[in-house]
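so my prof wants the structure for this chain in the C-alpha cells format not the other one, which i didnt know existed until like an hour ago. anyway here's the sequence
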Amino acid sequence: MQLAWKAWGFFKRDLMTDISYKLSFAFQVVDILVGIGTFYFLARILGRGAFRGYEPFAFILVGTAVNGYMTTSLTCFAQAIRGNQPLATLKAVLATPTSPIAFVLFSSLYPILRAAFDAGVYILGGVMFGLSLARVDVLAVTLLFFLSVLAFNSIGILSATFTLVFKRGDPLLWLFAGLSWLLGGVFYPVEVLPRFLRDAAQLLPITHALTGMRAALLHGASVRDLLPQIGLLALFGLVGLPLSLLAFHFGVRWAKVTGTLSHF
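here's what i got, hopefully its the right format
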C-alpha cells in the first residue's frame, strides 16, 4: 500500500506539472493532428506495393505512434535524473526510504502513460482521415504495448545510469534510437533494406513491436498469431529490465560513495 501511495505521489506531481502549462499541452495535441494530416497527404503519393499489403497512411501512422512512445521510454528516465539534480531533489529523495529503483520506475509512470495517450491520439486522429480500426484486436495491442514498453525501458534505465555516473548524455541511447528509426520499419518496411541490415533489424525491439502492432491494429491478428513477436519482446524485457535496474542500483551506490549524487 505504501508503494502505491508513493507511485501516486510521483504520478500526481508530474501530471500537475504538465497540465499547469495548458497552452503547451494543447499545442502538443495540435502538433500531432498536423502531423497526421502531413502523413495522410504524403501517403497519397506513395504506392501500396512496397508496404506489404498495408495502406501507406496506416503503415506510417502506426510507425509514428510506436516510435513516439519508444522515444519517451528511452529518454524519460535520464530526464528524471537530470531534472532532479540541480535542486538536489534527487539526493533528498534517495535519502528517504524510497529505493533508487522505486524512484526511477515511479518517475516514468506519467511520461509513459502520456506517451500512450499521444499514441492513441495518433491512431484515433487517423480515423478522421479514413483509418479503419474495424478489425483491431484490443488484447493483442495491449499486450504488445506493455511488453514493448518493458523492452524500451531497459535501454532507458541504462541511459539514466550513464547520466547519473558520467553527468552527460548517453551516446548509446542516441545510437540505439537512431538505429531503431533507420532499421526498425517506422516509415518503410524492413524488407526494403539490404539483407545484412534486415538481419540487424531483428536485434531491435521496435522491429517486432511494429510488426505486431500493425498486424493487430490493421489486420486483426490475435495473440496466438503474434506469438513470435510477443515472445521476442518478452525476452527483451525480462532479460534487459532486471539487468538495467541492477546497473542503476550500482550507479546510485557509486554516486553516493563518490559524493556526486547531486552533481550535474
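also thought this was worth mentioning. The chain has eleven helices and no strands.
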